[in-house]
Specification:
Layout lengths: L1 E4 L5 H13 L3 E6 L4 E6 L16 E5 L19 E2 L4 E2 L3 E7 L6 H13 L4 E3 L17 H14 L2 E5 L6 H7 L2 E4 L7 H7 L6 E4 L6 H13 L5 E5 L18 H7 L4 E3 L1 H5 L5 H10 L4 E5 L17 H15 L5 E2 L1
Helix pairs in contact: 2-3, 5-6, 9-10
The structure holds phosphoenolpyruvate and manganese (II) ion (MN).
The site of phosphoenolpyruvate (PEP) has 8 residues, from loops.
Length: 338
């Protein structure tokens, strides 16, 4: 349900509607717009009749939100969401690059990568300190020590840090180190983890589950938003299909429906989407053309020696070439790379 206030509504009238919603044991989500404020209502609406709100001063109309995801839907929030970090803003009009190695392997390679990315104008670096690996015998990440390395790279170069949170135990440490907290594919429906990141002060990068429908994905975003964190960035990283020519099937066709149904920004991860570095540039360019708001892309100083995902990682020269192509394609599309 959405309460649309009229253009002349005063702050007191908005507060009175919020208070009335709370008295019904529902949650109010005030959303100031450029011309008027709307107030989203979430909670179990079956037991109350919110039509009583319609008569309150300053209320223009009450709209029913038909989708099961409410706060993530465009029905409730028509304007595009821009997610801000200290270093940049993710959202339509720009094309945000988040690049870096799959894992933090040691301090030297992280500092080298950060210096390289900064020299190319990239403002956000992604590297995992906690790694969800299919095999228990594979490199599991450096854990807390990896977070400390990322914090030093951030301090030295000013680059923003994106890193994955795998379990609620490490939430405080990851929140402190990260400018954006990644929730990985395998955790898209880890509801305890989603509720926990809802309580953090940092934006959440929510990767699509391996077999998640768009509705399931947006419901996962809804968990984070319902808990009070409205800064969610979606990330398409390929889904599991019968195709075996690539690691996953990168579903670029999900971008237009995401934009239609939701106001949240969406990034594309062509590295996990293809699993092969030779295929990454084509899918990265296609993501820009298809309307994504940016990329999450694996770049490693020496991919053939990487401890994880080397086969799909670009080296610095390859990333530099892709960046040139992206810049050339962005211009006629009216987008700027950031
Ligand atoms: C990653 O980003 O390195 C990763 C493990 O991704 P995903 O959760 O998409 O598999
Ligand atoms: Mn990876």
């Amino acid at each position: 349900m959405l309460v649309v206030m009229n253009r002349q509504a005063t702050a007191e009238q908005i507060d009175a509607v919020v208070a009335a919603i709370r008295r019904m044991n529902l949650t109010a989500h005030p959303m100031p717009g450029s011309t008027r404020t709307a107030i989203g209502i979430t909670g179990n609406l079956s037991a109350v009749d919110p039509r009583s709100l319609e008569v309150l001063p300053g209320v223009e109309e009450l709209l029913r939100v038909t989708k099961p995801y409410k706060l993530a839907s465009r029905e409730m929030h028509a304007a595009d969401t821009y997610v801000r970090t200290t270093q940049t803003t993710v959202g339509p009009g720009t094309f945000t690059l988040i690049a870096g190695p799959c894992s933090v392997e040691n301090e030297e390679m992280i500092l080298r990568t950060a210096d390289f990315l900064v020299s190319k104008g990239v403002r956000l670096m992604r590297a995992g300190a906690f790694k969800p690996r299919s095999s228990p015998y594979s490199f599991q990440g450096m854990g807390l020590e990896g977070l400390e390395i990322l914090a030093r790279a951030r301090q030295r170069t000013g680059i923003g840090v994106v890193t994955e949170l795998m379990d609620t135990d490490n939430a405080d440490a990851v929140e402190q180190a990260a400018d954006i907290i990644q929730i990985g594919t395998r955790n898209m429906q880890n509801f305890s983890l989603l509720k926990r990141v809802a309580l953090t002060s940092k934006p959440v990068l929510l990767k699509r589950g391996l077999s998640a429908t768009l509705e399931e994905w947006l419901m996962a975003a809804e968990y984070v938003m319902a808990g009070g964190n409205y800064n969610v960035v979606l990330c398409e990283r390929g889904v599991r299909t019968f195709s075996d020519h690539s690691r996953n099937t990168l579903d670029l066709s999900v971008i237009p429906p995401v934009k239609h149904l939701s106001h949240l920004p969406i990034l594309v991860d062509p590295s996990h989407g293809t699993g092969k570095r030779d295929y990454v540039p084509a899918m990265a360019l296609a993501a820009l053309a298809a309307g994504a708001d940016g990329l999450l892309i694996e770049v490693h100083p020496d991919p053939d020696r990487a401890l994880s995902d080397g086969a799909q990682s670009l080296n610095f020269a390859g990333f530099g070439r892709l960046l040139d192509w992206l810049r050339r394609l962005a211009e006629p599309l009216g987008r700027t790379i950031n």
